[in-house]
Design goal:
- It is a single chain.
- This protein has 250 residues and is of the alpha+beta class.
- It has a single domain, classed as Creatine Amidinohydrolase (Alpha-Beta Complex), CATH 3.90.230.10.
- The longest helix has 24 residues.
- The chain is built from four helices and 15 strands.
Length: 250
């Protein structure tokens, strides 16, 4: 991963705004009886209308634009016209945008329905607050990866959530996944040093049960081994001299 120029940062701001717009639209439009394929098609249409391209489409042969993961599916859910969303589902939406050859990446998790159970509220609130904590840990030039990881882990532990250990945040920009890896657990003051102009994805992933994961038969969808419900939130963030800037927020 390399620091970005001022012009490249502006491109990533623009792409990040497209991404945030699409995720916001999907979060509002998702409803029972929709298929996960419908959601992916909406994402494709909307990002192209905004002037960007879906970064995940055909990346490593992934055949869709959007990852849609339901309940015990944690991340990388493969959309299908046969996968139908139901009332009470917890749905992760993970999306990437390519704009002028630079990539932004972001994710959110939504509850489909009006009244989530207390444990679902705890899962979603805790994972989202872990993302906020990871971002707050970015104190600018010289921040270490372990500072982010520790802040995320402490928040997930506070909410008594399973901290996923085999999937990580990452650098982003020229490619979807770049060095350094940013685990969701770790020790402050350790790990690679981040410098001004670098762009990274912070993405807490958690579950209501254990942290162990498997890959489903489709070769893509990551599922919780114990069948517990998972959640995933992600922002692309720019390291600034004394702090950071979220590039994938409205």
């Amino acid at each position: 991963m390399r620091p970005k120029s001022d012009n490249e940062i502006q491109v990533m701001r623009d792409g990040g705004k497209m991404l945030a717009t699409v995720l916001d639209l999907l979060s509002k439009r998702i409803a029972p009886a929709m298929s996960t394929k419908e959601l992916s098609d909406i994402a494709t249409k909307e990002v192209r209308a905004l002037g960007g391209q879906p970064a995940f489409l055909n990346h490593d042969n992934f055949p869709e634009s959007l990852c849609v993961s339901i309940n015990q599916e944690l991340v990388h859910g493969l959309p299908s016209p046969k996968r139908i969303i139901k009332e009470g589902d917890v749905v992760g939406l993970d999306f990437g945008v390519m704009y002028k050859s630079l990539v932004t990446d972001g994710a959110t998790t939504v509850f489909v329905g009006a009244k989530p159970k207390p444990e679902i509220k705890r899962l979603l609130a805790g994972t989202q607050k872990a993302l906020d904590a990871g971002i707050r840990a970015l104190h600018g030039n010289g921040t270490r990866v372990g500072d982010i990881s520790s802040a995320v882990q402490q928040t997930l532990d506070l909410y008594n959530l399973g901290v996923i250990r085999d999937l990580v945040g990452h650098g982003v920009g020229d490619q979807i996944h770049e060095e350094p890896n940013i685990p969701n657990y770790g020790v402050a003051g350790t790990g690679p040093v981040l410098s001004t102009g670098m762009t990274v994805c912070i993405e807490p992933m958690a579950s209501l049960g254990d942290w162990l994961i498997d890959v489903a038969k489709d070769g893509w969808t990551v599922v919780m081994r114990d069948g517990s419900i998972g959640a995933h939130y992600e922002h692309t963030v720019l390291i600034t001299e004394q702090g950071c800037e979220i590039l994938t927020a409205l």
